[in-house]
Structures are given as structure tokens and as C-alpha cells.
Amino acid sequence: MPSADATNAAIQAGEQATSLPVAAPRVFTPSLKVVLSTAFGALALLTAVISSAAIGHVADKRIRADIGAEFTSAAEHVAALLDRGLFERLRDVQVAASLDTMIDTNVTIDGRRRILERLQETYPDYAILGYIGADGRVVETSSGILRGADVSGREYFQRGKQGPFVSDVHDAILMAPLLGRGPDNPPRFVDLAAPVRAADNALVGVVGAHLYWEWAEGIERHVMAPILARHPGAEAFILSRQGQVLLGPRSQRGATITDLAPSALADLAARRAGSVVERSRPENGAEDHTHLVGYAATQGHRTFHGLGWTVLVRQDAEAAFAPARQLAQQVLFWGFVAAALAAGLGWYLAGLITRPLADLCRAAERLQTDPRATEVPIGQGLREVTLLSSSISALVAGVRWRETALQNSEARLRLATEAAGITAWEIDLTPEQRARSRRSAVAGLSDPLAEWTIESFLASVVPEDHDGVLEAYNHAVDNSVDLCFSCRVRGDDNNDDRWVEVRGVPLAVPPGGRVTRYTGVIEDITERKRSEQALQLLVRELDHRVKNQFAVFDGLVRFTAKTAADPATMASVLHGRIAALSAAHELVRDATGDGSARGLHSTTMIALLQTLLAPYGIRLSGDHESSSGRVEMDGPRVTIGPTSASALALVVHELATNAARHGALSLPTGVASLTWSAITPKSMVVVRWQERGGPELFGEPVRRGFGTSLVRQSVQGQLGGHVAFDWSQPEGLVVSLRLPADRLAR
């Protein structure tokens, strides 16, 4: 609690402050010119960036689409030329097969050879043209190669007998020597064939042709030349029906359509053309690349249905889209240039607009830095500026005086609430539901909480009180009524629980409208709660103790009557035991006083126990002469403070009373052993109560009385320790207490 001198000094300082305006803290803020020019520049920059980005994006998207369409068009062109070329070559073979020279069996071989030679001269990409008899033996060829050879097992002959036929590309390894090629570079052919039939449709023979694959390479070079001029590094592929590369870069000869353009499979299956950005699969540890791929499938031409080939045109995507990227960068660059020009213009216009206010701003700055300044010079120039300066001059003095008065009022309120142990709080009922506390008195925290939520407050509330707190809070908020509840909270050490009382009232905005906030106080009521609990416990204990005293008196009388030789001896012994109980009662009564104001003092464990257990006879460790003692005690010196003595006396008295009524001390042969030990002088004291020679135990009793609850509450609540009851020993009850030494010394 603040002292009276400190309180008076704070109030006097506040009263003195009310007579002088307090200068507001100086905060750097940019000038209006800077703000306006920055706003103009930012607006221009934002407009330029957005427009440039939009234009660049549209241009990039359009150029990317155009490049993809260009690659697709090239692929379609190659596919169309391949189909048309094969159609024309097949038509050449069909025309040759329909000539009378080929059909008439009486025509000499030289006549057929001249036709074949003339056809090869017309189109040099033919490797060989030949006339094959119906038996499959070559009758004549354009170059004399294979004359007389048996080709009856070849596919082009078997299929050529049935109708016009075009085969897929294949390597002619056996013909390599005949055409001057090595085995490592065999020729690649496309076979063509057409039947030669007489007027009665009888098969006379077959006209066959081997077309060099270089024919397709020429088409590829012709179509790709303009593409390569615009897109260096572009590649073309021709793939077979099975997806194998027939024509393409040597490094990709083993690739398939799945490796090159798996995303295009669905379109190619439907014979649709298009383009796609495809990530190639890395091979042999090479880095993967992203390619732009244009694709098209051969469609055939007129009566020729095509061979199902696929044409791909691709290029590295980064290189292919470089023009689009460069255009976007150029658009963005010129957008920034335009923004810079607009920012400069904005700076000039801002200067024209803000110049009349510059003097007024400097005057306002002087008012901020000089606490004694109360007037604002009347401004010159625009009418609005003059009115503004006059209004500021009138407002400054009033605002400063009111701020100072408010600070003084707040200081007085803070002193009053802190002196009373009260903390103010406020909670906002908006979706954030944030509460604010001025100090850390809430929950006994050592560090202030500037902002906290109802959930963070619950984190400091003991779990047993969570439901009650939430119920009270929700009821008040839902019904817009006053909030009031008390609960236990944990401090930083997590040892001592403290009681707080929370009170609050709803605030409506506007008055009479919807409640949006609650404001109130939190008060520490720990001492009040402890006093209430101690009073309740004392009342219950008083009632219980009176009953126990009568039971003890009854047991003492009966036991003394059995052992006393005559009435005088009985009276003497009984008087001594009752006096011991009275002394223990006096010790307990003193220990439950009001602290140092009663002049209490500490005692020891042995002194307390001797006083409490004297009526039953005490036998200390090593004392063999006192064989009649019913209670054995042994342990080191342990200090018992005035506060803990009350709780410990209740525990020992209850254990002895229970033993006298139901346990070992209820029989003449029964003995109770009470031992204690200190693990370390400042940590934990272990107390063990063990009964022997009493009625046989048959396990834990079904019903527990007030005495057991009193022992647990005293040990755990007041002494901060732990108690364990062991009912498993047939010869008697064993009770173990673990008590903190620092709590016992209080």
C-alpha cells in the first residue's frame, strides 16, 4: 500500500500540473507536401505498375499463344506434306501398275524397265522401283538391283497383291551393301506397292517401290527453315504410330511420345493438333528442361488414310518465350519511367497546394515543443487557413488544460485502487474480445499484461473453477447484466492459489443501445477467503472435537478403571490424562490466533507431540524404563511454527482419537509408533504413524468419517503436503505424511 506521504506528493504534483498545460510528446510526421507528393507518386506508380503488369500479362499471354500456334502450324504443315507426298508416291506406283506395258504379258522386260527408269528419274528419292511377278520373283527393277530375287515373303508384296499399300519406315540392312552403304548406316525405306491386274481382274504382278526416308528429312528441313530463323534451337520430330522417334535429333532417337509430350496423347488420339508446355524427363543424370511443344497427327490425303505418324515441333520454353518476357520487361520499364515523371509533377503540384499551410504547421510545431505557448499567430493568405489558425488557437489552451486535468484525475484513481488492492479492466465484446488491465495484480502475475482475453484469464484460473467463471461470464454477456464472480487463480510459482473477485458493468454505445463493452475491477480477496474457510473449519472442528472429547473421556475412564488398584489411584491417573488433553487443547487454541499480534512463538515436533499424546503414555526411543507408554516416538529436531502447529495438532489428535476409539489404543495391548525424519533440513519432513496390537484390519473401511477428511484437508490445504492411508496391514493402520519443511516452520 502506498504511504500517506507518497499519496499526498502525487496529488500535489497533479494539482500543480493542472495550472500549466503539458506539452504533448513530439512525434515525427511527414509534411503535407511530402504526403501529397508521395500520394501522387504512389498513385502514378501504382497505376503504371498495374497497367504495365496487365498489358505485359496480356501481351505475354498473347505472344505465348502465338508462338504455340506457330509451332502447331509448323507441325501441321509437316504432317500435311508427309501425307500428300506419300499420296503422290503411291499414286505414281498405282499409275505405273495400270499401264498396258505392265499389264500385257507379251511386253518385253526392256519396256517395263524403261517405265520404271523414267519414274525414278522423275522423282529421285526412289531408291528402287521394280516389277514383281505373280509368283513373287522380281522380274525387273529400275536399277537392275534385286533382279530375279524372290520377295514373295515380303510384306509389301503380300499386301501389294491385295491393293495399294504403304509401309512404315524400316531399316534395309540387307540392301545396304547393294546401295553402297555400310552396316552402321543402313538405308531407311518406306515401301509402296500396287497390284497389276488384267482386264479380267486376274493378278499379273505387283509394282513395288522403296522410297528413301531422306524424302521426309527434306520436308522437315523445308518447313523448319523459317521456324529456325525466328526460333533458333527449335527441333522437329516425326514419330511412328507406336510413338517411336523416326526423325529427330540423334540424342533423342531412342525417345518416345511419352517422353517428349505425354500431355498431348489425348489430343493426338483424337487427331487434334495443339501446343503444350511440357517438362521433359531427365536421362543419365541430365537436368530436366521445360519445352514448348507443338504437335499434330497425320490425317492422310484423299484416298490415302495415312500411317498414323505424329509430328512434334519443340523448343526450350525459356528460349521460346524470350520475346514475350522481353516485351513485358520493356512495358514495365516504360511504366516506371511514366510513374517517375508523374511523381515529379505531383511534387510540384503538392508544393503549390501546401505552401499556405507551411507557416501554420511551423507555428503548431512550436506549440508542441514549448509548454508555455498558448497562442497561435493568425495566419495570412487563404480564408480557410485564417479560420483554421484561429480555431487552433482557441482549442489548444482548452485541450491542454483538459488533458492535464484528466491525467491528474487518473493519477488519483490509480493511487486509490492500488491502495485498495483493486485492478481496473475493460473487455470489448467485438469478435476479438480483447480485455485490458492496467496492472499485473490480476492473478498475482509478476509481469503486466497489456492485453488479455477471457481465454488467457482462464489459463490462470484453477481448472475446478473454469465452469463457474464461464457460466457467470456468458450469463452476464448474454443478458447484458452486471458481472460478478469469484474464483481461484494461480500465481507464478504455481504453489499458492489466490482468490480474486471480478465485478463489472455493461456499457452500451450509444447509451441505451447495444452493449459493446464491459468495464470493472478485480480485487484480491485471498485473505478474506482464508478467514472464511478457517472460520468454517473451526466451527466444524469444534463440533467434532466436543464429540471426540467425550469419546476419549469414556475410553480413559473405562481403561483406567480396569488398570487402577483402587478408586484413589484411578482418580489420580484419570486427572493427569485429562490435564494433558487440556494442555494440548490450549496449544491448538493458541496456534489458531491472528499471527504476530498474539505474540505466538515456534515450538518443536517433540514438544508438540508430547503435549498431545501424553494422555496415552509416551515412550521415547531408547527409553526402556518407560515400558508402560502406549505411544512410541522417535525423530530429529524439527521446528514447528505457530501457524502449522494448529494444523499438525489437529492431524495428530485425530489419529490418536481414532486409534483410541477404533484402533490399537482401544485395546490394552495396543501400541502406536510415531516416527519422523527430515530428508534435508530445508526440504521435506516424513512422518509415519503405525499402529500395532489393535483390532485386526480387513482392508479399507467402506465409509469414511469427518476425521479422515479433516486429516486430508489439514495436510494438503494448510500444510501443503501429502497423506497416504495404508489399511492393508492386519495388525493396524499405517499413515504416512510428507510435509514441506518451510511450511512447517511458518
Number of helices: 19
**Oligomeric state of the chains in view:** single chain
For the secondary structure, the number of strands is 25
Largest sheet: 6 strands, antiparallel
Radius of gyration: 55 Å
Q: Distance N terminus to C terminus?
A: 24 Å
Task: List low-pLDDT spans.
Answer: 1-27, 434-446, 595-599
| Proportion in helices | 40-55%
Q: Based on helices, strands and strand pairing, what is the structural class?
A: alpha+beta
β-sheet strand percentage: 15-25%
Which whole number gives the mean pLDDT? 78
Q: How would you describe the shape?
A: elongated
Domain PAC: 483-537
Organism: Muricoccus vinaceus
GO molecular function, one term: kinase activity
Keywords: ATP-binding, Kinase, Membrane, Nucleotide-binding, Phosphoprotein, Repeat, Transferase, Transmembrane, Transmembrane helix
Overview of this protein structure:
This protein has 746 residues and is an alpha+beta fold. It contains 19 helices and 25 strands. Strands 1, 2, 3, 4, 5 and 6 form a six-stranded antiparallel β-sheet that branches. Strands 14-13-12-17-16-15 form a six-stranded antiparallel β-sheet, sandwiched between helices. A hairpin with a 5-residue loop joins strand 5 and strand 6. Helix 14 packs antiparallel against helix 15 (567-591), helix 15 (567-591) packs across helix 16 and helix 15 runs antiparallel to helix 17 (642-661). The longest helix is centred in the first third of the chain and has 67 residues, at 32-98. The two termini are 24 Å apart. Residues 1-27, 434-446 and 595-599 have low confidence and may be disordered. This is histidine kinase. The chain crosses the membrane at residues 34-55, 331-350. It holds the Pfam family HWE_HK. GO terms for molecular function: kinase activity.
